[in-house]
Design a protein that fits this description.
By secondary structure, the chain is an alpha+beta fold. It is built from nine helices and 15 strands. The protein binds zinc ion (3 copies).
Protein backbone atom coordinates (compact mmCIF):
# COMPACT_ATOMS: atom_id res chain seq x y z
CA UNK A 1 0.00 0.00 0.00
CA UNK A 2 1.56 3.28 -1.10
CA UNK A 3 1.49 6.45 0.92
CA UNK A 4 -0.32 8.37 -1.85
CA UNK A 5 -2.01 10.99 0.23
CA UNK A 6 0.73 11.75 2.67
CA UNK A 7 -1.14 14.61 4.26
CA UNK A 8 -1.15 13.44 7.84
CA UNK A 9 2.00 15.33 8.62
CA UNK A 10 0.14 18.60 8.05
CA UNK A 11 -2.29 17.79 10.80
CA UNK A 12 -1.89 18.15 14.50
CA UNK A 13 -1.96 15.01 16.60
CA UNK A 14 -5.74 15.23 16.90
CA UNK A 15 -8.69 16.49 14.88
CA UNK A 16 -11.66 17.89 16.79
CA UNK A 17 -15.17 17.52 15.36
CA UNK A 18 -18.52 16.25 16.65
CA UNK A 19 -17.31 17.57 20.00
CA UNK A 20 -14.70 14.80 20.17
CA UNK A 21 -10.89 14.92 19.79
CA UNK A 22 -10.01 12.23 17.27
CA UNK A 23 -6.34 11.12 17.34
CA UNK A 24 -4.88 11.30 13.84
CA UNK A 25 -3.33 8.00 12.73
CA UNK A 26 -0.23 8.45 10.56
CA UNK A 27 -0.90 5.66 8.09
CA UNK A 28 -1.22 5.62 4.29
CA UNK A 29 -4.54 6.13 2.45
CA UNK A 30 -5.25 3.80 -0.43
CA UNK A 31 -6.08 5.50 -3.75
CA UNK A 32 -8.98 3.05 -4.08
CA UNK A 33 -10.49 4.48 -0.90
CA UNK A 34 -10.06 8.02 -2.20
CA UNK A 35 -11.75 7.08 -5.47
CA UNK A 36 -14.64 5.41 -3.67
CA UNK A 37 -15.01 8.36 -1.30
CA UNK A 38 -15.14 10.80 -4.21
CA UNK A 39 -17.77 8.67 -5.94
CA UNK A 40 -19.84 8.75 -2.76
CA UNK A 41 -19.54 12.51 -2.19
CA UNK A 42 -16.61 12.72 0.22
CA UNK A 43 -12.92 13.61 0.37
CA UNK A 44 -10.58 11.65 2.60
CA UNK A 45 -8.75 13.96 4.98
CA UNK A 46 -6.72 11.41 6.95
CA UNK A 47 -6.95 8.27 9.01
CA UNK A 48 -7.98 8.76 12.63
CA UNK A 49 -8.87 7.06 15.92
CA UNK A 50 -7.47 3.68 14.89
CA UNK A 51 -6.43 1.78 11.81
CA UNK A 52 -10.06 1.09 10.82
CA UNK A 53 -11.30 4.69 10.55
CA UNK A 54 -11.06 7.57 8.09
CA UNK A 55 -11.96 11.25 8.41
CA UNK A 56 -14.21 12.12 5.46
CA UNK A 57 -15.19 15.66 4.47
CA UNK A 58 -18.70 15.96 3.08
CA UNK A 59 -18.63 17.58 -0.37
CA UNK A 60 -22.12 18.99 0.24
CA UNK A 61 -21.62 20.77 3.53
CA UNK A 62 -17.89 20.51 4.28
CA UNK A 63 -18.40 18.78 7.62
CA UNK A 64 -15.92 16.19 8.89
CA UNK A 65 -17.14 12.68 9.64
CA UNK A 66 -15.37 9.73 11.22
CA UNK A 67 -16.23 6.71 9.06
CA UNK A 68 -15.06 3.11 9.11
CA UNK A 69 -13.04 2.13 6.03
CA UNK A 70 -15.30 -0.90 5.80
CA UNK A 71 -18.39 1.33 5.73
CA UNK A 72 -16.92 3.56 3.04
CA UNK A 73 -16.09 0.58 0.85
CA UNK A 74 -19.30 -1.40 1.39
CA UNK A 75 -22.05 1.24 1.82
CA UNK A 76 -22.95 4.89 1.41
CA UNK A 77 -21.33 6.80 4.28
CA UNK A 78 -23.62 9.29 5.97
CA UNK A 79 -22.70 12.89 6.70
CA UNK A 80 -24.03 13.51 10.22
CA UNK A 81 -24.43 17.24 9.61
CA UNK A 82 -26.39 16.76 6.39
CA UNK A 83 -28.50 14.07 8.02
CA UNK A 84 -29.22 16.22 11.08
CA UNK A 85 -30.35 19.04 8.79
CA UNK A 86 -32.61 16.58 7.02
CA UNK A 87 -33.96 15.26 10.33
CA UNK A 88 -34.76 18.80 11.44
CA UNK A 89 -36.88 19.24 8.30
CA UNK A 90 -38.53 15.83 8.84
CA UNK A 91 -39.29 16.69 12.48
CA UNK A 92 -40.81 20.00 11.42
CA UNK A 93 -42.96 18.26 8.81
CA UNK A 94 -44.12 15.92 11.58
CA UNK A 95 -45.10 18.90 13.74
CA UNK A 96 -42.15 18.75 16.14
CA UNK A 97 -38.76 20.39 16.61
CA UNK A 98 -35.52 18.42 16.47
CA UNK A 99 -33.65 19.03 19.73
CA UNK A 100 -30.69 16.70 19.16
CA UNK A 101 -29.68 13.29 17.90
CA UNK A 102 -29.81 10.57 20.53
CA UNK A 103 -26.23 10.00 21.62
CA UNK A 104 -26.99 6.36 22.45
CA UNK A 105 -28.66 5.22 19.23
CA UNK A 106 -28.00 6.64 15.76
CA UNK A 107 -31.56 5.88 14.66
CA UNK A 108 -33.13 7.99 17.41
CA UNK A 109 -33.52 11.68 18.15
CA UNK A 110 -34.97 13.91 20.86
CA UNK A 111 -37.89 16.03 19.68
CA UNK A 112 -39.67 18.98 21.25
CA UNK A 113 -43.42 18.47 20.94
CA UNK A 114 -45.94 21.32 20.49
CA UNK A 115 -47.13 20.67 24.08
CA UNK A 116 -43.64 21.55 25.37
CA UNK A 117 -42.57 18.01 26.34
CA UNK A 118 -39.45 16.36 24.91
CA UNK A 119 -39.82 12.86 23.49
CA UNK A 120 -37.27 10.36 22.15
CA UNK A 121 -38.33 8.77 18.88
CA UNK A 122 -36.95 6.59 16.12
CA UNK A 123 -36.48 8.82 13.08
CA UNK A 124 -38.09 6.18 10.88
CA UNK A 125 -41.33 6.81 12.80
CA UNK A 126 -40.85 10.59 12.57
CA UNK A 127 -40.46 10.17 8.82
CA UNK A 128 -43.73 8.26 8.64
CA UNK A 129 -45.39 10.94 10.79
CA UNK A 130 -44.06 13.61 8.41
CA UNK A 131 -45.76 11.74 5.56
CA UNK A 132 -48.97 11.49 7.56
CA UNK A 133 -48.72 7.70 7.91
CA UNK A 134 -48.12 7.68 11.67
CA UNK A 135 -48.45 9.89 14.71
CA UNK A 136 -45.92 11.00 17.30
CA UNK A 137 -47.73 11.18 20.61
CA UNK A 138 -46.45 12.71 23.81
CA UNK A 139 -46.68 10.03 26.48
CA UNK A 140 -46.69 12.61 29.28
CA UNK A 141 -49.76 14.34 27.86
CA UNK A 142 -51.35 11.00 27.05
CA UNK A 143 -50.88 9.85 30.65
CA UNK A 144 -52.40 13.11 31.92
CA UNK A 145 -55.36 12.71 29.58
CA UNK A 146 -55.87 9.11 30.65
CA UNK A 147 -55.64 10.05 34.33
CA UNK A 148 -58.31 12.71 33.77
CA UNK A 149 -60.54 10.25 31.90
CA UNK A 150 -60.28 7.81 34.79
CA UNK A 151 -60.93 10.52 37.35
CA UNK A 152 -64.12 11.52 35.53
CA UNK A 153 -65.37 7.93 36.06
CA UNK A 154 -64.32 7.82 39.70
CA UNK A 155 -61.20 5.74 39.04
CA UNK A 156 -57.47 6.39 39.39
CA UNK A 157 -55.03 5.42 36.66
CA UNK A 158 -52.27 3.24 38.10
CA UNK A 159 -50.33 2.37 34.96
CA UNK A 160 -49.85 0.00 32.07
CA UNK A 161 -51.73 -3.29 31.79
CA UNK A 162 -49.83 -5.94 33.76
CA UNK A 163 -50.90 -8.46 31.11
CA UNK A 164 -49.31 -6.34 28.40
CA UNK A 165 -52.37 -5.51 26.31
CA UNK A 166 -51.72 -2.02 24.85
CA UNK A 167 -55.45 -1.25 24.88
CA UNK A 168 -55.80 -1.92 28.60
CA UNK A 169 -54.64 -0.02 31.69
CA UNK A 170 -54.61 -0.78 35.38
CA UNK A 171 -56.99 1.36 37.46
CA UNK A 172 -58.08 1.64 41.10
CA UNK A 173 -61.68 2.36 42.03
CA UNK A 174 -61.75 5.47 44.26
CA UNK A 175 -64.95 4.29 45.89
CA UNK A 176 -63.84 0.88 47.14
CA UNK A 177 -60.09 0.78 46.39
CA UNK A 178 -60.43 -2.23 44.09
CA UNK A 179 -57.73 -2.50 41.39
CA UNK A 180 -58.55 -3.96 37.99
CA UNK A 181 -57.66 -3.92 34.29
CA UNK A 182 -60.03 -1.94 32.08
CA UNK A 183 -59.88 -1.26 28.36
CA UNK A 184 -59.13 2.43 27.90
CA UNK A 185 -62.05 2.80 25.49
CA UNK A 186 -64.37 1.44 28.17
CA UNK A 187 -62.92 3.79 30.77
CA UNK A 188 -63.66 6.70 28.45
CA UNK A 189 -67.32 5.73 28.17
CA UNK A 190 -67.79 4.17 31.60
CA UNK A 191 -68.90 0.88 30.03
CA UNK A 192 -67.58 -1.51 32.64
CA UNK A 193 -68.26 -2.64 36.18
CA UNK A 194 -66.17 -2.64 39.30
CA UNK A 195 -65.56 -6.32 40.06
CA UNK A 196 -65.66 -5.64 43.80
CA UNK A 197 -68.51 -3.21 44.52
CA UNK A 198 -70.42 -3.72 41.27
CA UNK A 199 -70.73 -0.09 40.44
CA UNK A 200 -71.00 0.26 36.71
CA UNK A 201 -73.01 0.78 33.65
CA UNK A 202 -74.91 -2.52 33.44
CA UNK A 203 -77.51 -1.16 35.83
CA UNK A 204 -79.69 1.79 34.89
CA UNK A 205 -77.69 4.92 34.13
CA UNK A 206 -79.57 6.73 36.85
CA UNK A 207 -82.32 6.14 39.36
CA UNK A 208 -84.57 7.89 41.84
CA UNK A 209 -84.86 5.95 45.08
CA UNK A 210 -86.45 5.83 48.49
CA UNK A 211 -84.41 4.34 51.32
CA UNK A 212 -85.35 3.20 54.80
CA UNK A 213 -82.51 4.10 57.15
CA UNK A 214 -82.18 2.81 60.71
CA UNK A 215 -79.76 4.66 62.92
CA UNK A 216 -77.99 2.66 65.69
CA UNK A 217 -80.48 4.13 68.22
CA UNK A 218 -83.33 2.51 66.28
CA UNK A 219 -84.66 5.73 64.80
CA UNK A 220 -86.10 5.36 61.34
CA UNK A 221 -85.41 7.95 58.63
CA UNK A 222 -86.27 8.19 54.96
CA UNK A 223 -83.82 9.21 52.31
CA UNK A 224 -85.23 10.26 48.96
CA UNK A 225 -82.80 11.02 46.18
CA UNK A 226 -81.18 10.18 42.91
CA UNK A 227 -78.04 8.39 41.91
CA UNK A 228 -76.18 9.10 38.71
CA UNK A 229 -74.69 5.65 38.79
CA UNK A 230 -76.29 2.78 40.59
CA UNK A 231 -78.01 2.32 43.88
CA UNK A 232 -75.19 0.11 45.11
CA UNK A 233 -73.00 3.16 44.98
CA UNK A 234 -75.45 5.09 47.16
CA UNK A 235 -75.59 2.21 49.61
CA UNK A 236 -71.84 2.13 49.68
CA UNK A 237 -71.37 5.89 50.02
CA UNK A 238 -74.13 6.74 52.43
CA UNK A 239 -73.37 5.22 55.83
CA UNK A 240 -70.48 6.43 57.96
CA UNK A 241 -70.27 3.10 59.78
CA UNK A 242 -71.64 -0.43 59.76
CA UNK A 243 -74.18 0.08 62.52
CA UNK A 244 -76.38 2.00 60.07
CA UNK A 245 -78.87 -0.29 58.34
CA UNK A 246 -80.28 0.69 54.97
CA UNK A 247 -83.07 -0.88 52.98
CA UNK A 248 -84.24 0.08 49.52
CA UNK A 249 -87.99 0.70 49.67
CA UNK A 250 -88.31 1.58 46.01
CA UNK A 251 -86.28 2.75 43.08
CA UNK A 252 -87.20 3.91 39.58
CA UNK A 253 -84.64 3.74 36.76
CA UNK A 254 -84.34 7.01 34.89
CA UNK A 255 -83.30 7.47 31.26
CA UNK A 256 -80.62 9.98 32.22
CA UNK A 257 -78.95 11.49 35.25
CA UNK A 258 -79.98 14.93 34.08
CA UNK A 259 -83.66 14.00 33.94
CA UNK A 260 -83.42 12.25 37.29
CA UNK A 261 -81.94 15.34 38.87
CA UNK A 262 -84.62 17.66 37.46
CA UNK A 263 -87.43 15.45 38.75
CA UNK A 264 -85.79 14.87 42.12
CA UNK A 265 -85.03 18.55 42.74
CA UNK A 266 -88.61 19.54 42.00
CA UNK A 267 -89.94 17.02 44.50
CA UNK A 268 -87.52 18.11 47.23
CA UNK A 269 -88.51 21.74 46.73
CA UNK A 270 -92.19 20.81 47.04
CA UNK A 271 -91.62 18.71 50.16
CA UNK A 272 -89.60 21.42 51.91
CA UNK A 273 -92.32 23.95 51.16
CA UNK A 274 -95.32 21.79 52.22
CA UNK A 275 -93.82 19.69 55.01
CA UNK A 276 -91.01 21.70 56.58
CA UNK A 277 -91.54 19.86 59.89
CA UNK A 278 -90.82 16.48 58.22
CA UNK A 279 -87.38 17.55 57.00
CA UNK A 280 -84.93 16.02 59.48
CA UNK A 281 -82.30 18.29 61.01
CA UNK A 282 -78.91 17.19 59.55
CA UNK A 283 -77.43 17.38 63.07
CA UNK A 284 -79.59 14.33 63.95
CA UNK A 285 -77.80 12.06 61.47
CA UNK A 286 -74.49 13.80 60.67
CA UNK A 287 -72.61 11.23 62.77
CA UNK A 288 -74.14 8.33 60.82
CA UNK A 289 -74.69 9.44 57.24
CA UNK A 290 -72.48 11.14 54.69
CA UNK A 291 -75.29 13.41 53.47
CA UNK A 292 -76.54 16.76 54.68
CA UNK A 293 -80.03 16.93 53.18
CA UNK A 294 -82.87 15.03 51.53
CA UNK A 295 -83.63 13.09 54.70
CA UNK A 296 -87.24 12.99 55.93
CA UNK A 297 -89.26 11.56 58.79
CA UNK A 298 -91.19 8.27 58.24
CA UNK A 299 -94.42 10.28 58.18
CA UNK A 300 -93.70 11.10 54.51
CA UNK A 301 -93.33 7.44 53.45
CA UNK A 302 -96.75 7.12 51.75
CA UNK A 303 -96.32 10.45 50.08
CA UNK A 304 -92.84 9.54 48.77
CA UNK A 305 -93.96 6.12 47.53
CA UNK A 306 -96.74 7.87 45.60
CA UNK A 307 -94.17 10.22 44.05
CA UNK A 308 -92.14 7.23 42.87
CA UNK A 309 -95.21 5.56 41.35
CA UNK A 310 -95.94 8.74 39.46
CA UNK A 311 -92.36 8.91 38.19
CA UNK A 312 -92.55 5.26 37.14
CA UNK A 313 -95.63 5.97 35.02
CA UNK A 314 -94.02 9.02 33.47
CA UNK A 315 -90.69 7.28 32.70
CA UNK A 316 -91.46 3.70 31.68
CA UNK A 317 -88.40 1.43 31.68
CA UNK A 318 -86.36 1.38 28.48
CA UNK A 319 -86.50 -1.68 26.26
CA UNK A 320 -84.06 -4.43 27.25
CA UNK A 321 -82.24 -4.15 23.94
CA UNK A 322 -81.40 -0.48 24.43
ZN1 LIG B 1 -22.68 17.07 4.93
ZN1 LIG C 1 -46.84 16.57 26.18
ZN1 LIG D 1 -65.51 -0.64 43.38
Amino acid sequence: MTKLLDTTRLFPATLCFDGIEHPVIDMPVSPKWAETAAAKGFDIICRARDRYHLVLRCRTCGALNLVKIFTLMSAQPICQVCQTRQWAATAEAAGAFLLRRCPKDRHYAWLLMPCGHAVRRQMELVGRAARGEAEIRCETCLAEREAAEAEAQGWRLIGADPEGNPNYRLYAHEECGHVQRVARANMQTGRFNCAKCGEGWSAAPSAIYLLDIRLPCGRKLLKFGMSRNTLSRVLYQLPRHEAVRIEILDSVPMPSGHQAQLVEKKIHARLRLRYPAEVVDPADYAAHLKVRSEVYTPRLERRLRRELSRIRRKFPPLAEAA
